């Protein structure tokens, strides 16, 4: 059973706003705040051979060792074609405004709107789709959670959801996502109990902007991030490493439809531009063990991100006082086990 707690202050005000948008939203428990430096990789010390996976009967020893060494693990054909087609159809409905999931952030290339109107040729991302019943099914698929539990433990929270529709790009590199670490965006720890599940909705390769990873970088600390110094346009909240080591080996993850990669939040990764005339879709969720705790990001490398995100939410909901933890409380959904901290 999900453990519910009372809310007050700014959290309650945001609660009222979001409840007005969607009666299904339930109150989250009061978060436990454990101040710590966000610069430090919080990996629990465990005895034995593996630090980044838990004992389980799903992963082979070779798979656990691969994740231990590299920070990611690719599982072929994990999600069915039928499910992916359902997700694609729901995405198109959102693009056409046939459905409007409360709280979802729909990102568009406004320069294409006059040419294509409301269509998938304009929308490049649907973020925070936890209130869309159809898309959120992805976060509850037994075949996905079976693997997620190997990293998070049995009490699983879906924390951050995205459906990316990488549009055909130009030399402006509009939809290039710079190399980054996802932990930069997350005010909760420990990192070892967080994992991303990223599923290709069609073939992803170097031509249409597949994922690019730097194996083994999950063993490093969280690095400073910011907007890249590129010519042309940069996307809102698409932060990247401020000091990227170009010598670090990169691997392009070529994936077929339904293939799913699980990766650590400190793994340095990004994606290239889509040089084709089609789209490159993926659906993903960051999961965390509900035993994870919130941290205070003030006076850390994550503080400027907090200010930017909070300001965006205040403008969107016309809320005068919202904290970072409030935002994450409303994104978070229990998908398995018991809700403890998050």
UniProtKB/TrEMBL annotation:
GO terms for molecular function: L-ascorbic acid binding; metal ion binding; phytanoyl-CoA dioxygenase activity. Belongs to the PhyH family. GO terms for cellular component: peroxisome. GO terms for biological process: fatty acid alpha-oxidation. Its EC number is 1.14.11.18. Pathway: Lipid metabolism; fatty acid metabolism. Gene3D superfamilies: q2cbj1_9rhob like domain. Its cofactor is L-ascorbate; ATP; Fe cation. It holds the Pfam family PhyH. It comes from Calidris pygmaea (Spoon-billed sandpiper). Keywords: Dioxygenase, Iron, Metal-binding, Oxidoreductase, Vitamin C. The keyword Metal-binding applies. This is Phytanoyl-CoA dioxygenase, peroxisomal. It is an enzyme of class 1 (oxidoreductase). It catalyses: hexanoyl-CoA + 2-oxoglutarate + O2 = 2-hydroxyhexanoyl-CoA + succinate + CO2; octadecanoyl-CoA + 2-oxoglutarate + O2 = 2-hydroxyoctadecanoyl-CoA + succinate + CO2; tetradecanoyl-CoA + 2-oxoglutarate + O2 = 2-hydroxytetradecanoyl-CoA + succinate + CO2; heptadecanoyl-CoA + 2-oxoglutarate + O2 = 2-hydroxyheptadecanoyl-CoA + succinate + CO2.
């Amino acid at each position: 059973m999900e453990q519910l707690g009372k809310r007050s202050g700014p959290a309650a005000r945001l609660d009222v706003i979001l409840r007005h948008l969607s009666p299904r939203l339930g109150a989250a428990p009061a978060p436990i705040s454990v101040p710590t430096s966000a610069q430090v990789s919080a990996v629990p010390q465990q005895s034995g051979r593996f630090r980044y996976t838990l004992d389980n009967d799903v992963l082979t020893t070779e798979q656990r060792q691969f994740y231990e060494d590299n920070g990611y693990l690719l599982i072929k054909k994990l999600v069915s074609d039928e499910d992916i087609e359902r997700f694609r159809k729901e995405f198109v409905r959102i693009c056409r405004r046939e459905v409007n999931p409360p709280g979802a952030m729909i990102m568009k290339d406004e320069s294409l709107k006059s040419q294509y109107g409301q269509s998938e040729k304009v929308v490049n991302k649907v973020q925070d789709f936890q209130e869309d019943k159809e898309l959120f099914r992805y976060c509850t698929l037994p075949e996905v959670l079976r693997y997620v539990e190997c990293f998070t433990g049995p009490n699983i929270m879906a924390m951050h959801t995205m459906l990316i529709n990488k549009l055909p790009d130009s030399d402006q590199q509009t939809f290039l996502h710079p190399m980054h670490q996802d932990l930069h965006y997350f005010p909760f720890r420990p990192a070892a109990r967080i994992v991303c599940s990223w599923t290709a909705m069609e073939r992803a390769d170097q031509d249409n902007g597949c994922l690019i990873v730097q194996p083994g970088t999950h063993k490093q600390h969280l690095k400073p991030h910011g907007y890249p110094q590129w010519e042309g346009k940069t996307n809102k909240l698409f932060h990247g490493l401020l000091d990227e080591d170009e010598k670090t080996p990169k691997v392009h993850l070529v994936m077929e439809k339904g293939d799913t990669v699980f990766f650590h939040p400190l793994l340095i990764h990004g994606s290239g531009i889509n040089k084709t005339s089609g789209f490159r879709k993926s659906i993903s969720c960051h999961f965390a063990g509900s035993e994870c705790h919130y941290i205070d990001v003030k006076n850390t490398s994550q503080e400027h991100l907090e200010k930017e995100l909070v300001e965006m939410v205040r403008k969107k909901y016309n809320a005068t006082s919202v904290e970072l933890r409030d935002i994450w409380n409303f994104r978070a959904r229990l998908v398995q086990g018991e809700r403890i901290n998050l």
